[in-house]
Amino acid sequence: MNRTVLGVFACAMATSPATAQAPDSILHPVRVTATRIPGTLPRVGRSLQVVDSLLLHAQARPEVSEVLRMATLVDVRQRGPFDVQTDLGIRGGTFDQALVLVDGVPMNDLQTGHLALDLPVDADALERVEVLYGGASRTFGPGAFSGAINLITRIPEGSRGAFTLDGGQYGSYRTRFSQDLLLGQTGIRIGGHHGHSDGYVANSDFDQYGALLDVNHRHKAIQTRVQAGLVRKRFGAQNFYSSAFPLQQEATGTCFASVGAGHDGQRWSWQTKAYFRQHDDLFELFREDDAHYRYAGGYFIRNGNDTARLAPSLFYTFHNRHRTQSAGTMGSTSLRWKAGTTAIGVHGRQDQLYSNVLGKPMAAPFRPAGGREMLDRADDRQNLALHADHRWGEGAWTVDAGVLFNINSRFAPEWAPGVDVVYRWANAQSLFASVGRAFRFPTWTDLYYNRGGAIGSATLQPEHADQAELGYRILRGRRTLKLAGWRRQGRDLIDWVQMPGEATTHAANLTEVDLNGIEAEAGLRTGSGRGGLLYAYQWADQGSFNFASLYVLDHLTHNAVLWWNQRLPKGFRVQANLGWRQRYGTYVRLSDGVSKAYPDPVRLDLKAEWERRGITLFASAYNLLGAEQMDRGNVPLPGRWLSGGLRVAWDTNGKSTEGK
Fold first, then answer.
1. Could you tell me if residue 295 is inside a domain?
2. Burial 390-403 (b: 16+ CB within 10 A, else e)
3. Tens of pLDDT, residues 367-383
């Protein structure tokens, strides 16, 4: 079977036209924003991957999590398809240690990192994705302990639009709509999506919808941008958080808005932005609806006599409800002068929690609109980050150095220095190296959770890491290559642990882990085809502890991705993605209580499409080989999933929409 799969890629490469023999040209990439001082990729002294529009829109399924899983080295741990809920890990880090941003705005939720992809943005709205591997506290602050993923949305342009409808197995369907309008110097985009599935196993059904408004205006040399969006999800959560009580359900909602302005001059540049995000989370350990448990007289009852219990004499009487609000402002300015470019900036942020489980008792409890549970606990934090960076370039050398100083209302001040160095020579080759420090504050779940045998700790302190990497990069028009090796020494790591002889799991700053890794990324372009190969291997110096650790050693050992996109005659195009991953951690199987290794699936996705005059027909096969997938213990992912659909694109200016 594996020979057949590899043959697909071999045939795709073999059918590429003779123009592949043309001489290489130097690749001039877009300006990336993964550093404090933006620049082109050859001048970035870090391991940075840019996922462009071709990969964003060519996947078998159009979710952000699938783009990251099948086109990057991010450890994507899904609990369900269609971005229902996904944990993201970078270079062996946990889901709380990776930061997700939208156009540079941090979207992390201090309740938990499980909510990282509750975003009002889908893949259709994106221009590219920048994945910064390795700690990035110096650039993005305390959330970017192991790396950062910046989703860059398209600036509205022209007067074009599109409508997409797709459906497939398990009663699944999804609609997506977008419309760009150009009114003088103002571009406007309106977009929305809706999705549903009956579920591929019991209690895995879901419904979701979202919308995004994006307004961009240019006045002389100043560009202003306003964004607002929302997303709502409801999904069956079979075994998501507890195998003892499998019939769970969760509903989440995110509202987001930002306004920003900037100027990029010959010598002076400045940017400023303000943002607000609210997230609501309702978790039902016993699913409440007409087909499951009903609420009556203060209890949850099923089939008239089955009352929900946490223990024989302990009844389940309320759901977990949380609301978090984050508001922030950020500003920076840079000056280009004879010694290089100097940048300074500030980022202030206020985080607020309301909950019936997490936080401290509050004086004035309230009931949110449409809710049954009273929010009677709360907490808040204020954070101020100051940064200064300088870039110096001379001949083939580029050096970036900087420091972030952080003040938090709950924890002691922190600082995160770092230095990145690039040496470039002929034929678009370069060596790069970096050293830096990263830190992360505990989430409110880490601090306060106390239910179901898991106990947080209000005395937790920040976790820290020192890291270094060395890499080699080639950026040519037809061929690209990146090789990198890295090491991260972590201390005071926040983990959920179980000590010998104890029945409960609790959060603690107990774990020190030194992680190492090597990475390779290669790309090839031909006249009508393009492909890539990515591989990562990582290991820890510490193989075990004298206690049970839930997260810090539960990382990928091997992660490999191979993909090819081929344009064919008469408007046809095909995309194939092949992935293989092997995980170090284990889980306890629900059926017999045996500790099991995670499956290491070889997954093949295929997509074929035909486009003519703005109409595209497509068919997709997700996990064509039906490989067993499980990213979280006792939460199986789908086997083979076939789907197809139609996309209609238009441009009222009369321009071709082909390839957009």
1. no
2. bbeeeeeebbbbbb
3. 999 899 999 999 999 99
